[in-house]
Structures are given as structure tokens and as C-alpha cells.
Amino acid sequence: MHALRRIEGQVRGIQRMIGEERYCVDILNAVGAILGALKKVEADILRDHLDSCARAAFTSKSKKNRDEKLKEIFGLLANLRK
Questions:
Q1: What pLDDT is attached to residue 61?
Q2: Domain spanning 2-80: which CATH class is it, in words?
Q3: What backbone torsions phi and psi does residue 68 show, to the nearest 5 degrees?
Q4: Segments of the chain scoring below 70 in pLDDT
Q5: Residues 65, 57: contact at Cβ < 8 Å?
Q6: Using alpha carbons only, how large is the chain's radius of gyration in Å?
Q7: Where are the domains of the chain?
Q8: Cβ neighbours of residue 42 closer than 8 Å, sequence gap 6 or more
Q9: Which SS3 state, helix, strand or coil, does residue 9 take?
Q10: What is the 3-state secondary structure (H, E, C) of 17-63?
Q11: Neighbours of 75 (CB within 10 A)
Q12: If we measure between CA atoms, which residue out of 72, 64, 6, 57 comes closest to residue 33?
């Protein structure tokens, strides 16, 4: 995934910044950019999961499948809010 390779490059950049003893605020801004990029990746993966796996479970005739998928989604959302 292109976004993850870009994030990987940003992390290497922060390692260099720390090694060069760059200004802390610049490093913190770079960390914030990475966190934002990771949140976007997280949202994209969740959207894809809901659109494919969850949609399949909710359109199935199995109440057990739907209940399990709903429980999984509630768990995911709880973890994402941490």
C-alpha cells in the first residue's frame, strides 16, 4: 500500500531528525503528520471491511453470522476510540 510506504519514509525521517538533534517542535509536527496518516489508513481499512465482510454477513440469512459480525464491529469501534 502506497500510504504505508510513505508513512515508513516519514518514520525514517523522524529517526534522522532525532539523530540530527532537530528542534523538538519540528519532530512533534512530523509525528503528528504520521499519526494523521495512520488514522486515514485505519479508516480506509475499516471502510473496506464494512463494505465487504460486514455487508456479506448482514445480507446472509444466518442470524448467528450477523450477530457475530455486529459484535466484531462493536469491538473494533471500541478499540479505535482508545
A1: 86
A2: mainly alpha
A3: -65, -45
A4: none
A5: yes
A6: 18
A7: 2-80
A8: 80
A9: helix
A10: HHHCCCCHHHHHHHHHHHHHHHHHHHHHHHHHHHHHHHHHHHHCCCH
A11: 10
A12: 6
